Prior knowledge:
By secondary structure, the protein is mainly α. It contains 17 helices and 2 strands. It has a two-stranded antiparallel sheet with strand order 1-2. It is globular and about 85 Å long.
Amino acid sequence: MEVLIFFLWFLILFIPTIYLYFQKKYSYWKDRGVPYIEPKIPYGSLHASKSTRDTINMFYKTKSDFPFVGIYVLTTSAVVATDLDFIKDVLIRDFNYFTDHGVYTNERDDPLSANLFNLDGQRWRNLRAKLSPTFTSGRMRFMFPTVLEVADRFNKVLGELLETQKTHEVKDLLARFTTDVIGTCAFGIECNSLKDPNAEFRKYGRKHIEEPSHGTFVNRLMNVFPRLCKMLHLSRTHHDVTTFFMGIVRETVAYREKNNIRRNDFMDLLIQLKNNASIDGDEDESTDSKIIGKLTFEELAAQAFVFFLGGFETSSSTLTFTLYELAVNQDIQNKCRSEINLVLEKYNGNLTYEAMNEMHYVEQIVLGM
């Protein structure tokens, strides 16, 4: 009987306490006179029944003259920027105050999560200072022949498919193309997903994108309560995905270092940062790069992984939308083809890095997606 009474008193006190806690948290924007989306306990403004994309779209549709809308992610207050000038302030003029992405990382259980996109604070600044030289136009120029090789294989595979099939899933075909491109540039490995749609690189890349390791609520919980989630050993990356990519990077690095192999690809640059804390040919080797130190193997693997993910998924989606718009806008397609033929004629039919940079209309079409 005493236990039951204790339990009832516990409920009587606990439930109002929790309610008052949420009420206090959900009064943040109201107290400051900021327009906000009415939250619901315990999800906040991001309701579980809607995707993040649909929810953000709703925020923009309900925006006012205020430069942003206040929202709640569980109990954490956040801002959705809805004004272009305010967005420029955050991303450009006041960027030093907004460097953190607020994405959950757990290096102990999920080493691939500690990449440039996810890290915050000084670690992000250090890593960015080291990796910035790898994305110069000169470095991209060195990788261009590799991209052309994969593009030739893409044309050959597409030609074979057109002879045997009337309809094609363009998104999947382009994802296989970009997987081979990024796999070659980031890992120096022939992924062969153009020939084999079930190749391991394509299989594990697709699994990471299409099959999140946790549901929407748990993923939001990771961002709001990172310390708790680390104590619970929660990981964003599937264990088999981590095992595959860590193994591939370890084998690639070991083989190249043992045989002194040098290639003009992203992996080669990462290996240089791992062994020397700087990249051959950089003029500022005496400044930040040496102070920050060398990349660890885990940091190297994480950067290769995010380079792979960012390359194959976003690029294939952009190309898919581009081809669709060209298909339904014949006049734009004709103008695009004319520019390509004109530029290629200038370069004797060869698609070089310089020729690609002269295709300004084509570039505007892709960037418009």
